[in-house]
Every structure is written in C-alpha cells, then in structure tokens.
Amino acid sequence: MPSRQLVTPTDEALLAVSLDDAKLHLRVDHADEDDLIVLLIRAAMEDAEAVMGRALLPQTWRQRLDAWPAGPVELGPASVIAVTAVTSIDPDGTPVDLDVLDEVQLQADDLTARLWPAYGSSWPATRAQPDAVSITYTCGTWGTPAAVPALVLAWIKLRIGALYLHREAWTSGKAIERNEHVDGLLDRYRVHRL
User: Fold this and answer.
1) Fold observed for domain 10-54+144-189
2) For the chain, N or C: smaller number of CB within 10 Å?
3) How do the pLDDT tens digits run along the chain, 194 residues long?
4) Where are the domains of the chain?
5) Whole-angstrom distance, CA of residue 139 vs CA of residue 145
C-alpha cells in the first residue's frame, strides 16, 4: 500500500517560497489575494514534490501494510529522516508497538529508505487483516526553506506564476500545460525509481 502524507508544512515559516517573495515574483503589491497566493505556494510545492519524488521540507508520512514483507519495507517518498512509530497487530488482535531504537533498523540516504528488523531478529507475526502494520516516519530533503536550492525555488516561483495567471483556466476548459524545459530545472533532484 502506498504511503500517505499525514502532516504537511502548514506554518508559513515552512513554505519554500515566502509570501513576500511570491508577491514580488508575481508583481502583486496589495494584500487582497494573500490567501490565494499562499494556497498557490503550497500547490506549487506539492507539485514540485510529485515531480521530484521527494519531500522538500520536514513532514510526517504513514505507510500501512497488510503483512510484513519477506525483506525490508520500502519507504517513500525519498529523503526519510526518521521512523517515529511502528505498530503491528499480533495474531491475537493486540496492537504491538515496536521500539524504533531497538527493534527496527532504518537504512536511508537521499534517494532510498528501507526499514529492516533489527540485526538477528525478524518481523513479528501479524494477524491476517488489512493494515496489520503501520509505520509513521518523517521525511524532508531540506530542513529549512533557506536550504532549498535555487533551481527548485525558481521552478516553484514559475509554477506559482502559471497557476496565478491561469487560475480560471480549468473553468474555461483550458488545462495549465507543463513546460518540459522549465521542469528540467528539477532534473538533478529527481528520484528515479527502478
């Protein structure tokens, strides 16, 4: 089952592009559309994350499984920072919290993340039911907005501009098309899954 995002960066201090920078880029000098612009910043950030296959700033995700796999659990998106909780339902139906420090081992780098049982042990038996395993973790490639690379920021600003300029396009039957040359700004940060 794919991972689902639980907590997104909602604080304006955790936006990759600040409201003031976005307004400067859009050449907007009034506050009438501030809420819309913040929404467009978040939409552009989510779009950048989808294109790159990685989380920009720290956020919480959960992956649910029907049973433990034979090997490691692949976590995504890329850039997993830490596993915060692992719970499984034992054969009797009792939830069991695994100690994330002693019972599981995270193998993660900038591109991949795998969760293994601790050395010398195996995954515990689970009840045969949907969502018998739940893994909660934090991921984010850059810890602060100031650390986000200029190419990524440029792409986000260009996407904000397109969304702002064409904000009514969906109702008139015109889609906001992607520009492969602009999307190329994100190429060096994309995670390619095999």
Assistant:
1) Hypothetical protein yqbg (1.10.3230)
2) C
3) 567 776 665 566 679 999 999 999 999 999 999 999 999 999 999 999 989 988 899 889 999 999 999 889 999 877 899 999 999 999 999 999 999 888 899 888 877 889 999 988 899 999 989 999 999 999 888 989 999 999 999 999 999 998 998 877 665 556 666 677 787 888 888 886 54
4) 10-54+144-189, 59-139
5) 14
